[in-house]
Design brief:
Blueprint: H1 4-28, E1 52-56, H2 60-65, H3 67-76, E2 81-86, H4 89-98, E3 107-111, H5 117-127, E4 131-135, H6 141-150, E5 154-159, H7 163-169, H8 173-181, E6 185-188, H9 191-199, E7 205-206, H10 222-232, E8 237-243, H11 247-258, E9 266-271, H12 277-283, E10 289-291, E11 304-306, H13 313-319, E12 322-325, H14 338-342, E13 347-349, H15 357-366, E14 369-371, H16 377-385, H17 388-402, H18 408-417
Parallel strand pairs: 1-2, 1-4, 2-3, 4-5, 5-6, 6-7, 8-9, 8-12, 9-11, 10-11, 12-13, 13-14
Length: about 450
Amino acid sequence: MSLAGPLWRLGTAGLAPLLGPWLHRRVRRGKEIAARLGERRGEGAARPPGRLLWLHAASVGETMSILPLLEALAARAPDLTLLVTTVTVTGAELLMRRLPPSLAAQVLHRFLPLDVPAWVERFLEGWRPDAVALVESELWPNLLAALRARGVPAALVNARFSTRAARRWGWAPGLAREMLGGLRLVQAQSAADAARLRALGARCVEVPGNLKYAAPPLPAEPAALGALREAIGNRPVFLAASTHPGEEAMVLGAHRAVAPLLPGLLTIIVPRHPERGAAIAALAGGLPLSRRAAGALPGPGQAVHIADTLGELGLFYRLAGVCLVGGSLVPHGGQNPLEPARLGCPILIGPHHWNFAEPAAALLAEGGARAVTEATLAASVMGVLTDAALGRAMAATASRLAAAGAGLPDQVADRLLALLPPGPAAGRVEWGGAGRDLSC
């Protein structure tokens, strides 16, 4: 056993008394729901009888990627309860908003307990999952140790493990080996992710592909879309989607450079965190603007529209003539470029796109997206908005690439169901260790 594991356990247990005030501060900032803080301590279990598969997705992107997987699991195992946990409130809200009505009775949501030993134990004793699937890179030492001690089969699906993450875990190789080696199945997004995971101790590593290739197109409420189309008319639209701090100033600079050359230009900024809307408006420095959070539409007099609401990005991809993928002009790692690809929106990607390295590289290599920097952003926006044939070609290529993973959710569902006991578990006396071994 590595020294890092016991140190983490002691440290998190010691911090537990301080986490209550921290959680209440998060409530005041809109990062937690006051009535559900008990879930962060592992409370609130309401386990139904029968088999239960727990899937954990940290935030919005991970949650959206498993929606087709939930449908595939439910279709194959109608008796199965699917417990979905998230870290973020936004992930929870979008899950409930996007979950098909047919799945509502089969899917339960809770917030992930913080990785405090007693809180993890309480959660596991209350829910008693038959198997667990963690999404992308959600590796929590106390949680994984508790699952391993109980013999609960655990998988890491759609695993993303960047060079930076591998370097960080390289400082605690023993702990990484314990966590990854205890997983019954690892399904990596790419061969490079798989190699890094194997190097740190993961076993039974497969490379089926990226679930985000199989996600459905982002939805758009028809009435809202119609109102926006009417308000915008035939103006050229530049969209900056899911932006992070530091990017909005670059986007506004590009707008100021392009607007004199392209009359009527409307720039729409959709911040990754909607609560930043007022701060972004302050950056505009006199540019006439409107804010969606205030209920405003982008009228003819506005140069900039700040879409500071949640879950409406599908509207704006359908309206834009070109979009910048946020998080890629600053060292955040980039948001999901497949979302605009599915909706026929020409794509610009900055140099920082390691969160989606494989799809971004494919889009850039085949002409479905263009690489930009702060210095070249304005010229690229101008180039795409003034060349309709170029925009159509980019969109067609991106759409083709985004359709590559249509059958992946079914494949992943089959592998996860193989971790479960073969029949209903309601009558089983012993809990844990009931999953079947997988052939790798």
